[in-house]
Amino acid sequence: MQKNFSNIKQGLVIADTGPIISLAAIKKLELLDTMFDEVFISKAVWDELNENKNSIEFDIIEKYFKTKVRKINSINNLTFIMDYGESESVILYRELNAHFLLIDDKKDRKIAENFQAECIGTIGILIAAKKTGQIKKLKPYFVKLLKNKRYYSKSLLNRILADNHEGSL
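Predicted structure:
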């Protein structure tokens, strides 16, 4: 389902690890500030991000997120169906009554949606950024994502590019 981001600043978003790394890899973390009033991550996501301290993007990620980490208050009873970061993100989403969950993993996104989480992914953020004039073209960012070994379906990316009259990868 395509979200309508014609109105910028749409409340609180809880971000998962994958989209954070993807947005940092293409130097577009600031899109989160223009699209949402607040951005938080769970402690488990922070721990996952800290496992990659040697990555080029880590300095950008650390600077952006070090004050946005929140601990969950309840017991994480979702780890039997989801990874630790994703499960804490869903719990934090529910505890903070967030408006969006930024998550890319298809399986975990379906689970989150079963818990009534309003999900958006990295690609959705980029589409919204184009629609609101924050980026001019999608293709350069899709190319950067793939070059940075971020795993998105080429057929999906090509379909989006075709829909936006930007050719193909």
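Summary: Residues 84-95 form the longest helix (12 residues).
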